[in-house]
Design brief:
alpha/beta, eight-stranded mixed β-sheet, 21% strand, 20 strands
C-alpha cells in the first residue's frame, strides 16, 4: 500500500460579525505553511487551503478530509482562526459567518473535529491549533466572561481513535488572549502576527527543526523547536502537545546541512526604515536591502537576506512581494540542471561536463554533494565540473545536490556504460578461449604490411545485407513518473468522452423506446444506438487511468531523488486531475450499467 500524505489548512481572517476583529496573520500563515508542506523536498503533502469559509463549508471540508482514508495515509489539519469558549466550557472555532451569541449554530465545535479525527481510518492524524482564544457572551447580557485557561488541548485529546496508529495535537497556546467587551473585542487585546506558525514554517523550511541531524523532522523535533522559539519571543505564550503514537512520526524531510554564514547586521538607519510606519520608507528599505543582497562580501549579503525574509513573512502584501522578488534572485541556479553523458565504453577515461552557476555571489556560494559513488564533482571558477566513472557497466542515473544558504537544487545525471565486447582469439601464453582485444593488439593489426596473395585475385564478395535493427524507445527513469501521469490523464479524458457518448446514445435509445409504445424493447434500442460500447470503454479507460496514476505516484515516491521539483509537482498535479476526472466517470458509468441491467428486463 502506497503512503499518502494530505494536509488541510483552514485560515479565517475576515468575519461578518463586527465583534470579531480581523486577524493579521492567517492569510500569510496559510500561504507559507502551504509552501513548505507541499514542497516535495520538505513535506511532500497534497495540500488544500480553505480561506474565510462559512461554518457549513468548514464542517463539510473537515469531514470530507477525514473520510475515505486508509491506514497508509498521514493527515495534517491546521487551524488559524479565532477560538471561542462557550458558557458551558466547550471550545468553538470561528468561521467567517460566526455570530458569538449563536455559537452552536454558526461555529464549528471542537467535539465535531474530534469526532472526525477519531473516526477516520487514516494511520496517523496531526492537528495544529494556532488560535486566538476568548470568552463568550453571558446569556441575557453583554458582560465580559473572565479570561483564563481555555484548555484547548483537552478539547481535542479526549478518548482514543477507533482505528489508525496514532494521533497528535499541538496548540499554540491554552491562554485566553482576548475577551469580549459588550459585542466587541477589548481594544487593548488586538491580534498579533502568529509566532507559532512562523516557527513551524521556519523550522521546516530551514531544517533547523531537525534536532538530531538525521535528515528527518519528527513531530517531537518540531514541537521542541517551536516551543523554544515561541518562548524566546513571548514567555507568556506556551505551546502544548498531546499525542498517542506507536513509534516516531516523521513530518518532513530536513534541509539541514545548508551553508551557514555569520551575517553582518544592517546599519541602524536601514533597520529603522524597515520598521517605519510609512509605506514608501519601508519600500525604500527593501530596495536598499536588495542592493546589499548582491554584495560580494557574503556576510553583508547574508544579513540582507535574513532581513528580506523577515519582511516577506510579516509585512503587508505589496512590500512582502517586493522582498520575495529580491529573494528569488539568490536561488541556486545550475545550468544545465540535467546532464546526459550518453554511451561510454566500460573502463574508458572518465567523462566530464561543465555546469555554470548563475546569480549573485550569495547564490553561487553552495556546497555540491554527490549522491552516487560513480559521480564526482569539482568546483571551478565558473561553476562545477562533473565526472562520471565508467568502471561499472549499466544504465547509470543519479544526482548532485547543491546546498546554498537559502535553498538547494539538484543536477540530474544520466549515462550508459557499455561493457567492452569480447572476441575469439588464438591461445596465447598457455591461455585458451575468448580474449579481450587490447590496445596493443589493435595497434599491431593496424601497422602490419598487407600480404600479397599467391592466387589470382577474386572479386570481393559482398557481405549479405543485414536487416535494419529496430530499437524500442525507452523512457528515461527521470521522466517515467511524468510520462505515466500524462498517459493516465489521456486515459481519464478518454473515459469522460466515452461516457458522454454513451449517455447521448442512451438518451436517444430511451426516446425511441418511448415512441414505440407497448411493443418496444429498450434493450434493442440500446444496442441499435450502440450505447454499450462507449460505456464499456469508459469503464476500462477510467480504471486503467487510476492504476496508471497510482503507478506514477509510486514511481515518484520510490525514486524521489531523480526528479526535479518541477517534475514532481507536475506529476502530482496531473494525478490529482486524473482522480478528479476518472472517479466521477467510473461512478456514473457503473450507475448507468446498473440502470440498464435493471430497466431492460422491465421496459
Amino acid at each position: 500500500m502506497t503512503e499518502s500524505r494530505h494536509a488541510l489548512i483552514i485560515a479565517n481572517d475576515r468575519y461578518d460579525d463586527q465583534g470579531l476583529k480581523k486577524l493579521k496573520a492567517p492569510a500569510q500563515d496559510a500561504a507559507a505553511l502551504e509552501r513548505v508542506l507541499h514542497d516535495p523536498e520538505i513535506g511532500d503533502f497534497e495540500v488544500e487551503v480553505v480561506h474565510n469559509a462559512s461554518a457549513d463549508l468548514m464542517r463539510r471540508r473537515i469531514q470530507g478530509f477525514f473520510n475515505e482514508r486508509g491506514r497508509a495515509d498521514t493527515l495534517l489539519l491546521h487551524f488559524s482562526c479565532h477560538g471561542i469558549k462557550s458558557e458551558s466550557g466547550e471550545l468553538y472555532l470561528a468561521a467567517s459567518d460566526t455570530e458569538p451569541p449563536l455559537l452552536a449554530a454558526t461555529a464549528v465545535p471542537s467535539q465535531f473535529v474530534r469526532g472526525c479525527m477519531y473516526g477516520t481510518r487514516a494511520g496517523l492524524t496531526v492537528l495544529f491549533l494556532d488560535c486566538c482564544y476568548g470568552g463568550a457572551f453571558s446569556r441575557g447580557s453583554t458582560s465580559v466572561r473572565a479570561s483564563g485557561e481555555i484548555n484547548a488541548l483537552e478539547s481535542f485529546a479526549k478518548g482514543e481513535p477507533a482505528t489508525g496508529r496514532g494521533w497528535a495535537v499541538i496548540t499554540a497556546s491554552d491562554s485566553m488572549e482576548y475577551a469580549f467587551e459588550g459585542s466587541k473585542l477589548a481594544e487593548n487585546s488586538g491580534p498579533r502576527p502568529s509566532l507559532f506558525t512562523h516557527a513551524v514554517v521556519e523550522g521546516l523550511e530551514t531544517g533547523d527543526a531537525d534536532l538530531h541531524g538525521d535528515g528527518k523532522v519528527s513531530l517531537d523535533d518540531l514541537y521542541e523547536y517551536v516551543y523554544r522559539h515561541v518562548q524566546e519571543q513571548n514567555p507568556h505564550q506556551t505551546p502544548k502537545k498531546a499525542a498517542e503514537l506507536r513509534g516516531e512520526l516523521h513530518l518532513a524531510h530536513s534541509r539541514r546541512g545548508r551553508i551557514k554564514i555569520v551575517a553582518v547586521d544592517t546599519p541602524p538607519p536601514l533597520r529603522a526604515a524597515m520598521n517605519s510606519d510609512q509605506f514608501l520608507t519601508r519600500q525604500g528599505a527593501v530596495t536598499e536591502l536588495r542592493k546589499r543582497l548582491q554584495h560580494t562580501e557574503l556576510p553583508v549579503a547574508e544579513g540582507a537576506r535574513q532581513h528580506l525574509e523577515e519582511v516577506a513573512r510579516n509585512d503587508i502584501q505589496p512590500i512582502a512581494e517586493l522582498a520575495s522578488e529580491a529573494l528569488n534572485t539568490i536561488h541556486v541556479t545550475p545550468s544545465p540542471d540535467h546532464l546526459d553523458f550518453g554511451r561510454a565504453p566500460q573502463d574508458s577515461p572518465p567523462r566530464k561536463q561543465s555546469v555554470a552557476l548563475h546569480g549573485p555571489p550569495l547564490a553561487r556560494h553552495c556546497v555540491a554533494q554527490s549522491q552516487q559513488s560513480w559521480l564526482r564533482v569539482d568546483p571551478t571558477p565558473a561553476g562545477l565540473e562533473v565526472h562520471v566513472d565508467t568502471t561499472t557497466a549499466g544504465h547509470l542515473a543519479g544526482g548532485i545536490v547543491l546546498k546554498g544558504v537559502a535553498d538547494e537544487a539538484v543536477i540530474h545525471v544520466e549515462a550508459v556504460v557499455a561493457p567492452v565486447p569480447e572476441r575469439e582469439g588464438p591461445p596465447s601464453n598457455g591461455s585458451t578461449g575468448p580474449t579481450r582485444e587490447s590496445d596493443a593488439e589493435r595497434k599491431t593489426v593496424a601497422t602490419d604490411p598487407p600480404r600479397i596473395p599467391s592466387h589470382p585475385k577474386q572479386p570481393p564478395k559482398k557481405p549479405p545485407k543485414k536487416a535494419p535493427e529496430t530499437t524500442t524507445p525507452q523512457i528515461s527513469p527521470a521522466h517515467r513518473a511524468p510520462a505515466l501521469a500524462g498517459a493516465a490523464l489521456a486515459l481519464a479524458v478518454t473515459s469522460v468522452i466515452t461516457l458522454v457518448l454513451a449517455i447521448q446514445a442512451a438518451v436517444a435509445a430511451v426516446i425511441d423506446r418511448g415512441d414505440a409504445g407497448v411493443y418496444g424493447n429498450v434493450e434493442d434500442n440500446i444496442r441499435e444506438h450502440g450505447a454499450l460500447t462507449p460505456l464499456i470503454v469508459c469503464l476500462i479507460t477510467g480504471a486503467v487511468a487510476l492504476v496508471a496514476g497510482a503507478f506514477a505516484r509510486h514511481e515518484l515516491g520510490a525514486r524521489r531523488e531523480q526528479y526535479t521539483s518541477k517534475a514532481a509537482n507536475g506529476t502530482k498535479t496531473l494525478t490529482s486531475v486524473v482522480k478528479g476526472l476518472a472517479i466521477p466517470a467510473l461512478i456514473l458509468a457503473v450507475l448507468a450499467g446498473i440502470t440498464y441491467l435493471v430497466g431492460s428486463a422491465q421496459w
